[in-house]
Automatic annotation (TrEMBL):
GO CC annotations, alphabetized: cilium
Organism: Mohoua ochrocephala
One Gene Ontology term from the biological process aspect of the record: sperm axoneme assembly
TM ranges: none
Origin superkingdom: Eukaryota
Protein name per Swiss-Prot or TrEMBL: CFA47 protein
Amino acid sequence: RVELEGRGCTEVWIKGVVVEQVLKVLGVSCGKVLKCINFGPLYFGTSKTEQINLYNESPECMDWVAVLEDNAIGGEMGTDLQGSTDAVLQDLSLKNKDVDISTLILCVPNQGTLLPYEKSLITLCFSPEKFERDFDVNNSSLIQDYVLFLRFETVGKRGGCLQGLSDGATAPTRSHSRHVDLALMGSGFPVMLTFKPGTVIDFKECYLGEQTQVVCAMKNESEFLPVTFSFRKTAHFNISPERGKLKKKSEKEVTFSFSPRQIGTFEMKQIIDIMGTGVDKSNAGVLKTKSFHQIYLTLLGVCKSKRKSVLFTINPGLTPLITNATGQFVARGTGQLSDTAPVAILKSTQTQIHTHRKNRDCKDDALIAFPNDRAASLRPSDWNKKYRTIFTKTERYNYIDPDFAYTHSERLLREECKKYYTDFVSRLRHRRLEKEAARQFHIYNNSVSIGIKPAEGLKSPNISVADFAEEKLQHKMLPLDDNCMLTSRKLAAIASKSTNKGVWSWLSPMPSSTQEKKDCSLTLTHKQLHQIFIGPSTIDFGDVCVYSTTTKELHIINNLSVHIWIQIEMEIMELNETSPLSQVVPPLTKTHIPIVFETKTVGMFKRSFSYKINNQHIGHVLVVANAMPIELQLSTRELILTPVSGCLAGTEFRRTVRLCNPRNHPAAFTWRPVTGDRKSAFTIKPTRGFVEAYSDLECEVVWHPGFHTPETGEFILCVLKGNSINLKCFAKVTIHA
């Protein structure tokens, strides 16, 4: 209602539709709401993608994050649902294992912001992995079925975080959570590729230059999936076909050929790559064809040389280019001649057979030439080497051809070039050793290391079970990687570490240290904000009394490994007594801020205040209260006083009335008698006083009998700043004959 000057009073109607934030998962092609996605059967190590639309059906922006529910009721983690009951019961041990399901499901993106009524395309990737069993099973029965739940939550709206932090029913135990669940189903199968006659293929003996073949039958035993294979190249062996695809329950013949290129016994490992689609690590959410599984075959083969008979004939007298030791027989058909003639040499100091006296004292390290090496002795020789005969040790003449031998300047040039490269390699080695020494110096030259040798004189520490539990808990701490998904177990593990610590009642209001300033200036992602709990989001004080002071706690749990800075912007008069309004919360710490509510106005109170995290991220908390006036209640409005049996005549009639205070504030009262023309015969004590909050007080009413005294009376209970109640009193007098 608006009063306008000169125009009277008019009315302005304000209308609005209040809706909740709603997230929906829609199909890309159909546009309908999806409850479940079935990826179907896949080989272990392969991946398959499906796309969905995340829809914000609300008129405000919404920050969301994806959380994998790995401890949800109805989830299956690698159980063969088509197996027998005993097998399924044995597979239940998998659910108790510490399995990180974030490696099975990939959501790209897994966090973001949706504008009002906006759709966002999300890619889900399923990559089954084979889990190790505690017992040996047949490879054909290693079928693992998965039923997982993916929850899309609004950032910060996570329920169940206040359980166990407050006592009694005054503190809320669960906050309202806006989320949508999507069930994900899929199955993992092993590659079942068999070979006949087996994985060891033995070829017959083969001569150099020839080829042997073995035909092998390759069968795909899988009933659900085809298999794509590719044989790697192996020396001396050929496979046809090298690659191909086998349909489910189909068979194909493969020809293995052994074509040796050298003489010997061969035992080769043939690798068969099973091809499939997998996630590209450099580009998350994109699939590429790769080898996800390998099968090994053993190929055995022996290559022999052909025997060739050698015929010896009498030497006709002409000595050929190459002769045997006696020079009598010549072998024909021995193949191609070598490029160099044989030279037989030995140390001259190691033989003294038929040595002439004049040559016995020769001390030089000369080489000894055999008699049949004339073809080699005529070639250009090294100028600094000497040759002597085998028997007489006479120095032989070595012809040096000047057309082919190195000159003195060329020999010096060769030595200089050789020395240059020797020095170059030496300098490289020296430089490498200097760098390694400098690196070792920087490693050990610090304030922590005092130069002692590792483990010298130190005793092994005593390890307890608590140390392993602490290490396991630290391992579960969620990294700040954007590609890593949140899981309910990881969040619970981090939250338990934070809540198990004592509550910090006093914290610094401003970042002071260098580390605190660095941490509090970070811009947090949606996943990091989802690990910070500030709540409850609605603080309900219930029925409170005016002029009273009521306190409720705003809990703050920092599950991150960095400091955060919480600032509360309080501009509400009823909450002005709230303090502190700024706190720096250390990593993995819980604390609380007391929210103080005071009001003088009766009625419903609904206001919200905002807070900031690291002076950037804004959140809101709604405060609700029903302000009630100061009030006292009577146990009865009409009090009948009767005499006690056995009492004497003229005895006073007595009875009590109870005053109850249902409010959280003390109430002051005063009794006022209602008197007419005659004086009242009723009295009440106490006539004034206080009734504490949530307590009661007994007041005694007395009737004094007498001649012509009235048998009725009335009192007014006046409550200071509160209500008034009338109490009527009646004296029941019985006259005995």
